[in-house]
Amino acid sequence: MIAYTCLGTNDLEKAGRFYDALLGTIGAGRAMEVDGRFVAWGKAEGQPLFAMNKPFDGEAATVGNGVMVSLGMSSRDEVDAIYKKALELGSVCEGEPGERAPTFYAAYFRDLDGNKLCACSFA
């Protein structure tokens, strides 16, 4: 049902490098770029995309309180790997990897712009 999820950034070049490295960990690559204002990553055509953009209104990007994007992983090992990579790339920990509920394993971190992400597996 979701086509893509988009978070704001004030430095698209820096965010692009961060997400190229981070999402490359799970086999995702750049799928779309628009006018130096928008970059989207994906794994396969027709699957949902994750995107970063400069706000359309020209105002500064800010972090929404209570807003979070969850990235689905195929295993607990993949959650651990992307969480570790995020921290290596300068992310801030918002919750170490662990079981949050039966069959739900997750880790939480903030990207370089302060956006909160969750890497999770239901396996």
What does this structure look like?
By secondary structure, the chain is an alpha/beta fold. It has one domain (4-55, 67-121): 2,3-Dihydroxybiphenyl 1,2-Dioxygenase, domain 1. Helices cover 21% and strands 40% of the residues. The protein has two helices and eight strands. It has helices at residues 12-24, 76-88, and strands at 4-8, 29-34, 38-42, 49-53, 68-72, 92-101, 104-110, 116-121. The strands form two sheets. It has a four-stranded mixed sheet with strand order 1-4-3-2, covered by helices on one side. Strands 5-8-7-6 form a four-stranded mixed sheet, covered by helices on one side. Strand 6 and strand 7 (104-110) form a beta hairpin. It is globular and about 45 Å long. The chain starts with a strand and ends with a strand.
**Average pLDDT metric:** 94
Number of strands: 8
Helix coverage percent: 10-25%
What structural category characterises the helix and strand content? Answer: alpha/beta
The parts where pLDDT drops under 50 for at least 5 residues are none
What's the order of the H and E elements?
EHEEEEHEEE
Provide the gyration radius in Å.
14 Å
Whole-number tally of structural domains: 1
- What is the CATH class designation? Alpha Beta
User: Roughly what fraction of the amino acids lie in strands?
Assistant: 35-45%
Quaternary structure type: single chain
**CATH fold field value:** 2,3-Dihydroxybiphenyl 1,2-Dioxygenase, domain 1
CATH architectural category: Roll
Compute the separation of the termini in Å.
Answer: 21 Å
Instruction: State the major sheet.
Output: 4 strands, mixed
Number of helices: 2
Shape: globular
What is the name of the CATH superfamily?
2,3-Dihydroxybiphenyl 1,2-Dioxygenase, domain 1
How is the largest sheet built, in terms of strand order?
1-4-3-2
